[in-house]
Design brief:
- The chain is mostly beta strands.
- It has strands at about 25, 30-35, 40-45, 50-55, 65-75, 80-85, 90-95, 105, 115-120, 125-130, 145-155, 155-165, 175-185, 185-190.
- The strands form four sheets. The protein has a four-stranded antiparallel beta sheet, with no helix packed on it. Strands 5-6-7-8 form a four-stranded antiparallel beta sheet, with no helix packed on it. Strands 9-10-11-12 form a four-stranded antiparallel beta sheet, with no helix packed on it.
- The chain is globular and about 45 Å long.
Amino acid sequence: VIDSTYTNPILTHGEYGQMGDPFVIRYNGMYYMYYSAPNAPCWTSSDLVNWTYAGTTMPDNGLGYGPWAPEVTYYNGKFYMYTSIDGNGHYVFESDSPTGPFLPVTDNIGLSIDGNVFIDDDGKWYFSTAGVGGSGGMSTAEKDGVGIYEMTSPTSVNLGSLVDSGIVSHGGGWTEGPMLIKYRGNDFMTYLG
């Protein structure tokens, strides 16, 4: 049964408390939501209103406390999770299922927090991240702006291919959560500044 009304917040907290940095992917008519917490918890929904806890998606990996702002992309039969472990650079994890288990397939590729993957109409991949350059964390130089890099595969970010770093936060504060989307032939970026 699908509810005709809902109240925000739809979910007030997850298994580990607050549900910061949520990300939702749609696959085969279902929605999968991940958020910043140990072992990348996942919730599922068919209507974006009623949610069911599906468990954690990432086994203990020995990398640190947990993923920050995990995002998942589906490509060629595999699911790829891009996340910063404890805010110290990004890793790519892979799974055969949107509910995991996601296992590491790269070492630390560096960069700052809140990575996002965008696949353009021409098949080119891009990785955007809060901050520009660096090997992880948010230094003073990194906190203002968004870096956009070319990707050569779902697991490889070309760090020498900075496409754009001219997007800066307003007021000199933190810039987080960049996301590139395409709508009616135009590219848009949302971010928190």
